[in-house]
Amino acid sequence: MGGNGATKTALKDKTLMGTNKKPGKWRKRTLAVRGGQVRSAFQETCEPLIFTAGYAYEAAEEAEARFKGESPGYQYSRISNPTVTMFEERMALLEGAPVARATATGMAAVTAVFLAGLKTGDHVVSASALFGSCRYVMENVLPRFGISCTFVEGSDLAAWQEAMRPETRLLFVETPSNPTLAIVDIAAVAKIAERGGARLIVDNAFASPALQRPMEFGAHIVVHSSTKFIDGQGRALGGMILCRQDFLDESLNLFLRNTGPTLSPFNAWLHLKSLETLELRMKQHCENAQRVADFLGQQKKVTRVLYPFRPDHPQHNLAKAQMDGGGGVVTFDVEGGKPAAFKLLNALKLIDISNNLGDAKSLLTHPETTTHQKLTSQARAAAGVTSGMLRLSVGLEDTDDLCEDLEQAIKIA
Ligand SMILES: Cc1ncc(COP(=O)(O)O)c(C=O)c1O
Q: N or C: which end of the chain has fewer CB within 10 A?
């Protein structure tokens, strides 16, 4: 399972040491710590950071054989790299995916899936609650290649079905979505995709595999911005595509290899090591977010709180069925629109104003003027973004400190 097999091949290599453990039927937490690890001849306990662009060959014949795919081993780090492979294999194990490919960013993952999987004349259906850059790719990039896109309300299954055309090849959802935390029924939309001969892509950046594994519900492709909760400390950009073997073989492999949206081995190493603590961190993010969401729900000037595991979330039951926790993001509306939202942001004494999320530090975003600024007002409305909306990525700080900061800032708003 997982990766491009290079690690498995390397395991058999005589230069690697016997301290490499053979993965048995390890459980999820064990896989997060040990999945995909390959020790070098130095027998290091920590996964090695193989920081190299190229690889040497013992003979010209060996180079030829490797390029023919007849001999195991690496050729060039645009194509694959041992540290990147370890990250891919660990992610595949955690997501329950047959194969995984890392990319430089989350947007590189989304764009690569579209460009690799589509051709002129094809059609895409997407939920309209989307991160701004995902919407840009579908609305501005794909049409240049003669690929059209229909946006639907993600919770409206009849609308998904109606939007399907004979030339529909890919369906796309973020669940939970950025920033409104809308939940889409993965199993139902995957069935619609399959009936139409298409594939469903799920952007799992907000949940992470610790809280949601879309392939268990029938998703064909999962994409990640590992910049977010997988890194967890706001350090490095990264992305991941997880899919079945057929999509990799037919569409993705040669596209990635030749176009090069490759993840740096250093970033792969950071994210690989971050996976070891993902479940622990997500548990705490969820606990903190739930507490902060409930606190915000009691504030008079807060007119709406969106958090998937709060009973007042419109798709609360679906969220509970699909996710193991509500996630680390809470979105809320303040009375008074943009001026009030800005006053609140500028009054913060602990929480940072930032457009990133998934950090150990709590970060507050005004989506209308940042992450979703470049969208047309209609697209913003379709994504559910309002002027008084704030997206809070709840970090790992003490929630008493977070609530005190929000309380004093809300008073000023
Ligand atoms: C849901 C979602 N998908 C994709 C991305 C893009 O990820 P990256 O910034 O790593 O390119 C983001 C970034 O905020 C996101 O929120």
A: N
Q: Pocket of ligand 1, candidates 103, 105, 107: which has the most ligand atoms within 8 Å of its Cβ, to mutate?
A: 107
Tell me, in angstroms, the distance from the centre of ligand 1 to residue 278's CA. 18
- Is the preceding peptide bond at 98 cis, omega within 30 degrees of 0? no
> Atom of ligand 1 at shortest distance to CA of 355?
14
Q: Which residue stretches of the chain have pLDDT < 50?
A: 1-4, 6, 8, 11-12, 14-15
**Whole-angstrom Cα distance, residue 344 to residue 338?**
10
- Output the pLDDT for position 17: 58
Distance (Å, whole) CA 17 – CA 413: 61
Whether the CB-CB separation of 82 and 6 falls below 8 Å is answered with: yes
Does the CB atom of residue 174 touch ligand 1 within 6 A? yes
Strand, coil or helix: 319: helix
DSSP at 214: G
Q: State the Cα–Cα distance between residues 208 and 212, nearest whole angstrom.
A: 6
Q: Is the pTM of this model over 0.70?
A: yes
Specify the pairing of strand 221-225 against strand 239-243: antiparallel
